[in-house]
Amino acid sequence: MRTLSQIIASVATADGAGVKLRRSIGSQRGRYLDPFLMLDEFYSDDPRDYIAGFPSHPHRGFETVTYMLDGHMRHEDHLGNRGDLGPGDVQWMTAAEGIIHSEMPQQSEGRLRGFQLWLNLPAAEKMRPAHYRDIAAREIPRVDLPGGARVKLIAGAVRLDGKNVRGAINGGDAPMSTDPLYLDVHLPPASTIELPVARGRTAFLYLYEGESEVGPEDRMSALPRGAAGVLADGNVVRIGAGAEGARLLVLAARPLHEPVIQYGPFVMNTAAQISQAVEDYRSGRLGSAAAPTATH
Length: 296
What we know:
Blueprint: E1 4-9, E2 11-15, E3 19-23, E4 36-44, E5 54-59, E6 62-70, E7 73-77, E8 82-85, E9 90-94, E10 99-105, E11 112-120, E12 131-135, E13 142-144, E14 150-155, E15 157-160, E16 163-166, E17 181-187, E18 192-196, E19 202-214, E20 221-223, E21 227-231, E22 236-253, E23 261-263, E24 266-268, H1 271-283, E25 294-295
Parallel strand pairs: 12-25
Antiparallel strand pairs: 1-21, 2-3, 3-4, 4-11, 5-10, 6-9, 6-11, 7-8, 7-10, 9-12, 13-14, 14-17, 15-16, 17-22, 18-22, 19-20, 19-21, 19-22, 23-24
């Protein structure tokens, strides 16, 4: 049974053109949770907090996963690809060799809410052509369990209620190098759930609504709202919800055990590679190998 080994509180910050958000994983530069680099939660009913969006900016060496809960965000890249993300939609972008893109809210009022995860790539894949997938909410498998719990499978495969269920990403026979698991779990009040999480995987939870405790029944630990709870090793995690119920993300992936050098939107293995990324961006060579988007 996995237990909570560390709590990483989210801190208020801003990114892009001043979008207000909260950052847990990645809030301290140089302290990563291999292979996870960053997790941001953006959530506001005030358009002044998000309307300026994330204008054109580059990435190289990792993947970004954008998961929308509320609102509407448009993605455009330097090759002319365009995608629209609405409530429940996901974009899984593998920046790899490089991509220059923007993410701009398509609303002037109302709630904008969601998450962006940065997931590292192994050295052997950092310079492959960039590509991404837009996944509509209706294409993300959802399992309703006895007792009222609901699990959305964004990535990976997991056994639920006696059945093996595959997520929208990485649920097939050719898993990605980090073999990511990305679940959105909704628990009714005073309920519990046990989820298998493969031994040896880096894993954490992020509670974004309600109250929750984690661990064996005789020694459960509280997971604060708006915090990432890093899990000790094991092959199953037990999650309990409080009187308000709970909504949380469950994330796990195979660690890479490689050096990580980050300079803003570039994540490589050596300082020389970072210098090359900066030079490629300045000279217009970054992203020349990007592949067309796959939109579903």
